[in-house]
Amino acid sequence: MWGVLNADSSMYLHIIASPSCHFKKLDKIEIKKIFLKKRQYIKGEFIIVLDNPQKKIYKKFVYSYLHKTIREIKAYWMRMLFTGKKIPPATLSVAKLKAYNDNICYITYINKGIIFENWHELKIMR
Amino acid sequence: MKYILLFIVLTISLVAKDYEIGYGYKVNDALHISGYLSTEYSGSTKSNKFEFDDLALLAYGNLSGKFSYFLELESSSLYKYDLDTDESFNHSIIHLERAYVDYVFSYRYKIRLGKQITPIGYWNYEPINVLRDTTSNPIYSYRTFPKLLSGIDVYGRINQDGHLNYHAFIQANKDLDQEALNIKSVYFYGISLKYDLDDLLSLGGALGTYKIRDTNEVVNLFQLDAIYKNDRGEIKTELAYNDIRNDVSNVSNQSFIGYIQGKYYINDKEALVSRYEYINEKTIGHIGVLGYSYRPIYPISIKTEYQIHSDNSHNKVLISFSVLF
Q1: Quick one: CATH architecture of A14-115?
Q2: Is residue B2 very low, low, confident or very high in pLDDT (cuts 50, 70, 90)?
Q3: Are A108 and A115 in contact (CB under 8 A)?
Q4: Which are the contacts of B312, defined by CB distance < 8 A and separation ≥ 6?
Q5: Between chains, do B104 and A77 touch, taking CB under 8 Å as contact?
Q6: In this predicted complex, what is the ipTM?
Q7: Which of A7-12's residues contact partners 24+ apart within 8 Å by CB, and which partners?
Q8: Closest residue of B to A92, CA-based?
Q9: pTM of the prediction?
């Protein structure tokens, strides 16, 4: 069954990947680069990142992994958007995940270890 | 037409539920609607003018993971008012500023097709007031190469984990929209490279050639750029050497134009900016700019600057208010 996006108040974040992602671990620098869309490929695989729609989880992720404040990340994406360089990531939803292409590797983050069907949690290298 | 654009913009910002200032209205992942506007006051010993400068509407989105698009309609110099003579001027033409699709084949090969920002340097990627640190643009930014390209750009990263990015671009046709172009070209071919040494420093350069429609001049462009940024500010510089030859008269000349700009963050909302420009065309000129920038929130920018020219009669004050919505 599809998991619940936020079922716990714990703010420990789990980075999870869809079944078509073949890698099992990432380091923090790679996570930062793919979520800022500075890189779209990991080990030859095309990645689509999805942001969590819940503000607390998003804020925690931005601070912990992207090392930015909300003001800084908004400034970054507005700059990327209006300069035509990059479009911000789509946000995560169960409906969207059902509609997405099974052959593409998606990565997102949740705050509790409730994993979507067949998704796996990535080991984070420091 | 401009009132229609204004009406659409205001309606979206007031009515839309899924609206956030700066990001615009999100219909879904495939369609976001956004925009910006800017106003400017310019004062010197020669003139005092107020200008409602730009009003633009944008649509963009991801059509699939690898396929996206971007559309921008803009009305420039909507309204000007001369405070000395009491004269006003209206301009109501809406033009196609950008319209392109992007497709990702791999990290090495991506394609952008349509009317787009010419992928050279840093300043050229900041086409609107609100993104910039100064109200004015350096002369380098509009005199050395066409700012917009109606053609194809193949770009990507040379190796997967590397720091070297490239663009190879071609325009071999008329511009998609002839309005508001700095240089109307018959063709424009070029390559640009950018090397990120780390998160703080990157270096780049470009080579290109284009033919100016109005003058029949063929221009060979050589460009270099560098940027260093950290939490306290940034320093960037861009230089362009143009070798210009008239196709009809065969007369040649050269120009060398560049700038260096520093920015210091006073806090997360305020910054001080200074810029030096060097212009070597038929004569040599220098411009110094001292500026202050205030952003209560990122999508709103209030700026002021004072320009000192080697020809003192051009010295002026600029004040601007601009917003992304």
Answers
A1: 3-Layer(aba) Sandwich (3.40)
A2: low
A3: no
A4: none
A5: no
A6: 0.84
A7: A7/A112, A7/A114, A8/A111, A8/A112, A10/A111, A10/A112, A11/A56, A11/A57, A11/A60, A11/A111, A12/A111, A12/A112
A8: B29
A9: 0.88
| Segment B146-159, tens digit of pLDDT | 999 999 999 998 87
Query: What does the block give as tokens for B169?
Result: 């671009």
Q: How far apart are the C-alpha atoms of A15 and A73, rounded to whole Å?
A: 19
Chain A interface with B: residues with Cβ < 8 Å? 39-41, 44, 46, 48, 69, 71-72, 74-75, 77-79, 81-85, 87-88, 90, 96, 101, 104
φ/ψ (deg, to 5) at B22: 100, -40
Per-position b or e across B191-200, b if 16+ CB within 10 A of its CB: bbebbbeeee
Nearest to B138 by CA among B313, B301, B294, B278: B278
Token pair in block for residue A107: 């990565």
DSSP string for B29-95:
TTEEEEEEEEEEEEEESS-EEEEEEEEEEEEEEESSSSEEEEEEEEEEEEEEEETTT--EEE---EE
User: In this predicted model, what pLDDT tens digit does every residue of A57-103 receive, in sequence order?
Assistant: 999 999 999 999 998 999 999 999 889 888 888 888 777 666 666 78
| Residue among A46, A74, A83 minimizing CB distance to B298 | A74
Q: Which one-letter amino acid corresponds to residue B114?
A: G
Topology classification of domain B2-324: Porin (2.40.160)
Considering CB atoms only, which of B29, B66, B131 is closest to A82?
Answer: B131
Burial pattern A86-118, b for ≥16 Cβ within 10 A else e, equals bbbbbebeeeebeebeeebbbbbbbbbebebee
Report the pLDDT value the prediction gives residue A99, as an integer from 0 to 100.
67
